[in-house]
Design brief:
The radius of gyration is 16 Å and the shape is globular. It has 6 helices and 14 strands. With 216 residues, it is an alpha/beta fold. The longest helix is centred in the first third of the chain and has 13 residues, at 40-52.
Length: 216
């Protein structure tokens, strides 16, 4: 693996078909973003990959804190001894999860609270990699995305999807705020940037600028 080449590994977990990402580079240090693993089988799948690649988990990041993106937080935090990092504006969203997790079919959900807060302008570093943190509220009040300029990869959570956008009918959601986040934070990136969303297939900034029906 050449120096400064970022590898992106995708897992699709839980009944919401949520995309969990492991990012790693030549140093074998890695970050886990939005672990949605909801049961032992999914936890083991994630763990097996990390082990097989000889990776060292150094950070646990959430783009936002809806239940489908945080189900595996405690597993990752406990297994690898890393603190959870989220944007402070999503703390209330995270703290609400135990109040509805059983109703959504996850009575076994265990909460882990953040020890660090992500801020726009404060980059996330691991190994030889630096990810820019962009604040993109609208789907959730504290939503962030992670951008790697060198490889033109963006881990986008539930902001922008292939021909779609994040829903805004959940508590803390706001449609106009979401559209503004997409236009000012994402659509200002190069068109060839690959967007890895929280659900569904990857897309590019150029493709969504040209053909996303919500943003025409």
């Amino acid at each position: 693996m050449p120096a400064n080449s970022l590898q992106v590994k995708l897992f699709t977990f839980n009944p919401f078909s949520e995309n969990t990402y492991v990012l790693y580079d030549a140093t074998k240090e890695c970050v886990v973003i939005d672990p949605g693993c909801a049961d032992k089988e999914e936890q083991q799948e994630l763990q097996r990959f990390i082990q097989a690649q000889g990776l060292k988990v150094v950070r646990l990041l959430n783009t936002h804190c809806h239940i489908d993106h945080v189900l595996g937080n405690k597993f990752i935090a406990d297994t690898y001894g890393v603190p959870l990092e989220i944007h402070e504006a999503d703390l209330a969203v995270l703290r609400a999860v135990p109040t509805y997790s059983a109703a959504y079919g996850f009575p076994q959900y265990q909460e882990v609270l953040p020890e660090k807060f992500l801020k726009e302008g404060e980059n996330v570093t691991f190994g030889e990699t630096e990810l820019e943190v962009l604040f993109t509220p609208g789907h959730a009040p504290g939503h962030v995305v992670f951008y790697h300029p060198q490889s033109k990869n963006l881990i986008g959570g539930d902001v922008l999807f292939h021909r779609s956008i994040g829903r805004t009918d959940l508590p803390g959601g706001d449609h106009n705020t979401l559209l503004q986040s997409i236009r000012t934070k994402l659509f200002t990136l190069p068109e060839e940037v690959t967007v890895y969303p929280g659900h569904g297939p990857s897309t590019t900034i150029g493709e969504e600028k040209a053909s996303n029906p919500f943003l025409s």
